[in-house]
Write a structure and sequence with these properties.
With about 190 residues, this protein is mainly alpha-helical. Helix 2 runs antiparallel to helix 3, helix 2 crosses helix 4 and helix 5 crosses helix 8. The protein is globular, with a radius of gyration of 18 Å. It comes from Brevibacillus ruminantium.
């Protein structure tokens, strides 16, 4: 399989199939990022299509010595944040969208579901700037440096936003009846 830089070079030379390969390679990761940021599958699907269209038309701005996935993540995260700001709405989730982890008893399943809902609600209630770095770090498991590159912000800003996100989550979870350490269950 060709590397991303070679595929970008082919796309810029007019090869449409090369871009289709890039889309196939990254569509799942971009959808997952957008879904975690919006909480809505349909919104994430629509935004993912917009992101790939936007990336296609900005492909000449990609630096060949750069990391294509970080560049694409940055476009996706920024586009999603712009859209959420434009809509000025709070993200809600339905019970069907919260997955249960198998447990031994119905009581444990109920308690686990309740805990997950509290945690997800608290993550979604974070300010957009904190939510995006939190999701990239703890759900997508990117390093601080990768988040810095993806979001095009200084490393110290990433650290500060993560610190504040954890603090706000800790406070919100204490009020919601869940512990900060239960977040590993989502």
């Amino acid at each position: 399989m060709q590397d991303d830089t070679e595929l970008v070079r082919l796309v810029l030379a007019g090869n449409q199939q090369a871009y289709a390969r890039l889309v196939d390679k990254y569509k799942g990761k971009i959808f997952a990022l957008l879904y975690r940021m919006t909480g809505q599958a349909q919104d994430a699907q629509d935004l993912a299509q917009e992101v790939f269209t936007k990336a296609y038309f900005q492909l000449e701005k990609f630096q060949p010595d750069g990391n294509f996935s970080a560049w694409l993540y940055r476009i996706a995260a920024n586009h999603c944040l712009d859209e959420l700001r434009r809509r000025k709405r709070t993200v809600k989730t339905t019970d069907e969208e919260v997955e249960l982890i198998d447990t031994e008893t119905p009581e444990e399943a109920f308690l686990q579901k309740e805990t997950q809902q509290v945690i997800l609600r608290q993550i979604r209630e974070l300010d957009e700037e904190y939510r995006s770095v939190f999701i990239l770090r703890y759900i997508d498991q990117l390093s601080y440096r990768e988040i810095s590159e993806t979001m095009a912000i200084p490393l110290t800003t990433v650290q500060m936003r993560l610190h504040r996100a954890r603090k706000k989550l800790r406070e919100g979870l204490e009020k919601g009846g869940a512990s900060y350490y239960e977040m590993s269950q989502i």
